[in-house]
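INPUT
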Amino acid sequence: MSAAGRSMGLRGYALLYLLFLYAPVILLPLFAFNDSAIIAFPLSGFTTAAFTQLWETPALHAAVWNSLKVGVAAALISTALGICAARAATRSRFPGKRPIMGLIMAPLVLPEIIIAVALLIVLVQLGMPLSLWTVALGHVLICTPFAVAILSSAFLALDQSLEEASLDLGETRVGTFFRVTLPLVAPGIVASLLISFTLSLDEFIIAFFLTGSDATLPVYIWSQLRFTAKLPSVMALGFLLLLFSLLLLIAAEWFRRRARRGAGDEGWI
Amino acid sequence: MNAPLIALDRVEKRFGAFTALHGVSAEIREGEFFSLLGPSGCGKTTLLRCIAGFEQPTGGEIRIDGGSMEGVPANRRPTNMVFQSYAIFPHLDVAQNVGYGLRRLGLKREEAARRVEEALAMVDLAGYGARPSGKLSGGQRQRVALARALVMRPRVLLLDEPLSALDKKLREQMQAELRRLQRAVGITFILVTHDQEEALIMSDRIAVMFDGRIAQVADSETLYRRPVSRRVAAFIGVMNFLEARVSAASGSGIEAEIEGLGRVALRAEQAPGGAAGALSAGVRPELLSLLWPGESAERTAEGVVEDVVYYGYMTDFAVRLDGMARPLTVSMRNAAGRRAPAKGERVRVGWSTESVVLLA
Ligand SMILES: Nc1ncnc2c1ncn2[C@@H]1O[C@H](COP(=O)(O)OP(=O)(O)O)[C@@H](O)[C@H]1O
Ligand SMILES: [Mg+2]
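OUTPUT
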């Protein structure tokens, strides 16, 4: 095959791949605005009825509220843990650092269902009632590796002599952390909060296993899939969730880049 | 003579199996401009960081004002540092950078502001307080770092190659300015540099370091005229080395036979490293001269010009003296009305026994 032919082949492959990945996503808004309860072509007409219906479903509002609570808690806790772990990973040397960091990062590659089942068993054994708190706990476990990864690169980009200069000028270690380190890794912290929140917001398996009577948004969506009549509104809900997640991720990425380039000695502004 | 401000007492620093400082001892006096000079990697920064408190010596002791610094963290030492990278806080403006350390001193707001203004004026940055630090030039960042340290009124100011990032013109200007500033504030400065000329120009005394050891501590002139070893001599300026053999040495004088120059009688201080192991003689190129017919000197030798390098204000001649294998460098100032000898010409070289130093 000629070089041009190979390049054509590759391009075709990439195109098919992207289509396969995103075509279902494009179907979401199509059917969300479709004027029919049946998810099938041809489209019958345009309506925003599904969105109006969302607005009038109290159970949905409760699920959104639950997801927000879990997301905020998971984001705050995993980012706080991430700050500590990332600082230790980039600034100190201690015995067993590699295995410890490995264990912190492991949930990144463990199947979520295993984490969920394992947590469920432990919680039941401990006699802890399932609630939004247990869901948040599970989410902290899967969000922390992301927080550590993002914050580590923010700490690495931070010129160590800035912290030394602060100490040299008489500031304590704690004071240095608040006056120099924290402001300079702030974009990384914001990125970590946003990513953790987004991960928690979209997470289904752990939430499904660990929630008590309060459903989070993905669990609510799943429960609605049984009712054919509700399909358009599920589509509408999915579409909104997608938009919101995308916005969060774009913001997170913007902050993450800023953290990596901004924390050095040059060009903060 | 009063007690030293800083005493380095057999300071040793190991990084794992590597020893960066092999028991360094020196005393630095109050109000002195002291330089640590040596090639890159010889341990200058490590020693400075030990004094500042960023590294803990693995042996020996550092005393400031008579008090041991062991276990005293960097933020409680009477030292301040100008970092090689300047370490200007990027999220703070110029005034906030300079005033950073004042916050913990518990000064009144107006008093702190006044001291910041004063410090900025001292480094010629008056009125720059509100500038964001990201918009400063290299020279300005350097001044901010200096003001930020000086505003703390430290007992000792530590400077790690503060001028190495500046271009030549600015560097020369800052050398003079730093020297003037040090005299004005009277604070003890310890400057780390690998630039021998910079050290000679600025310092009261210089410690020359090689491989984690101090080879010599002396004022600029002594260091230049009477280096204790061949290695120090070669590191400071340019030196001609000639083979030498000591034939007699007593408390008052030394007799030696020097390749190309013949027998000489020297005073004992002309072998600063001791006459016993001396194997070579050193003569600075500018202490040799090419003699015109009729001119005379304490001692003369004859040879052939092998090369001429013209520098504008002076010229270097490579002259091979009769009976020598390698040429010597003779530096002459270019004066009006003097014709420089050309390559291949025979010349007389004038020298004095005073300019010879015996080296191990
Ligand atoms: N933290 C460290 N860990 C290991 N080796 C170090 C460390 N800091 C400095 N060194 C080594 O110590 C030697 C002296 O370094 P340094 O004091 O920075 O030299 P200089 O400032 O004279 O160029 C170098 O060989 C350097 O590699
Ligand atoms: Mg150095």
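end of record. The pocket of magnesium ion (ligand 2) is lined by residues B 44-45 (CB under 6 Å).
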